[in-house]
Request: fold
Amino acid sequence: MNLLSTTFYTGIATAIRTITGFALNKVVAIYVGPSGLAFFGQFQNFITIILSFGSGAISTGIVKYSAEVRECEKEKTKLFSTAFRISLVCSLITAVFLFSLSTFLSNHLFKTAEYGFVFKVFSFSIVLFVLNSLLIAILNGEQDIKRYSLVNISGSIIGLLITSFLVYKYALKGVLLASVISQSIVFFVTIFVVVRANWFKGVQFLGSFDKGYFVKLSKFSLMALTTAIVVPVTQIYLRNYVGSNLSWQEAGYWQALLRLSGAYLMLITTTLSVYYLPKLSSLQSNDDLRKEIFYGMKMIMPVVIVLSCGVYLFRNWLIVLLFTKAFMPMESLFLPQLIGDVLRIFAVLLGYLMVSKAMTKTFIYSEIFFNLLLVFLSVILIQYVGLRGLVYAYAVNNFIYIIFNVYLFREILVTSSKRNKHDL
Reply:
């Protein structure tokens, strides 16, 4: 499946996810306001961290190796059975952790024990949450984009319905509760869809544990864990910093902007994760790599720029439509945020080369460095220009990240060329 067809199917799913996401933002904004949205953001970051530990952070590795062994049933059995065991063991351990420390976690994240029950519910639902993620990663690796899109559409609609009902009944408690149960319910939809695929064989998940694939998946686990820990922790820290030094109201404005950016860029990021990782993983020659990345830039960057310009032109209307008038002060944050978004996508297009080639150390070091740099720049700039310092720092950090990835891209191709010549 090529980039255009992948974009078509993921585009449909993403359009629905975007619409449901916007509707969800509106519901949450109405019932919990800017400060409640900030706390919701804190909890979402926490879920990201926990799910990474609960799944063993192997989803990216599953996508890569599923794509590589699509035609070999024996290798698929080794991969799927190993991944299933890793997911099951890690999710059970994480479930015990969540249940045992529910009160502590509530006090630490929300400064009250009132939400301890949410963590207990999460402990019972996390196994299904993780298995759902495993099956979706396999769908991606198999490049079964139609079923992949169907599952994502189902998840979006179910998530919206559950969240809307619970936030209406229980306000912030309902939002938090919906966050930990919706994807677990989607698991039953996913398994219903997956078992009907021609390539699916349940026995493949019951094979022996393979040490070779365990080691291979562990490399991706380290990369995924780095991102899943560093990025949310960075956001939690910055949100707390804004809440403590400015106000939680302003932290809510920033959270709303993050959700808006994530929503309108979803088509791009989804296409990259669904198409680029399997595709780049399968390419070996420098010419093919160079052509594929430049092709991606030619196709994707104009779309990103057009989307960003559209969001900026209609920013006031979007704030009222997607949130409420109480969020209007965030209008001044749009321009630097959108510039940062364009720079980010450009950098990520190049950065996927690190992931596809399993450059574990380079990826981990760069992820840690650039998130630390973002924190440093944000704290400095907030002192001078207030909340706008966050989005200025985001844009500057992404520009520096582009320079790094361009250098790395050139080095990878040059080194590979020298190696190929030497082999000849």
